[in-house]
Known about the structure:
A hairpin with a 2-residue loop joins strand 7 and strand 8. The protein has 187 residues and is an alpha+beta fold. It has a four-stranded mixed sheet with strand order 5-6-9-10. A two-stranded antiparallel sheet has the order 1-2. Helix 2 (75-83) packs across helix 4 (113-124) and helix 3 packs parallel to helix 4. The protein is globular. It is built from five helices and ten strands.
Amino acid sequence: VYEIGRVFRNEGLDTRHNPEFTLMELYQAYTDYYGMMELTESMYRYVAEKVCGTTLITYGDKQIDLGKPFRKLTMIDAIKEETGIDFDTVRTDEEAKALAKERGIEFEDRHKKGDIVNLFFDEYCEDKMIQPTFIMDHPIEISPLTKKKPGHPEQVERFELYINGWEMCNAYSELNDPIDQRERFRA
Length: 187
């Protein structure tokens, strides 16, 4: 099931976000975020071939290859690649905040480790994702409606696709556990 339409989100305006934009929203029964990544990659490749006649796109001075398999990288691994910091070894919110202070990353008192992970990704990684890259396994703190990743209770089954340093889409496995949802709403 999908729809394409104009939307408005009152989330502010900056160089990466416009409050009014065109959105395609898509849902598929009996799949998870891996199935949605496969669908997304296939769709980008198909559209590029039909519209441009090729999957090799030139944008400014960059060549973007939509024909190769899209890279898949966890958010924590992306941060580790760019900074050398492994958030899998950071155990507490206080440790995460200390790392943010060391790197000059601003955060709010209410922020937890997952929020800090996201701030690190925004600061150090997002603009480096030139070739198509799925950033997977986001922190639970920033994804309240997303199913937990089995075996990793701090992470959820969510991905964002980045091309040319831009977030092109956001998708996740829907949370369908009513007990987990109630606990998250209470929190």
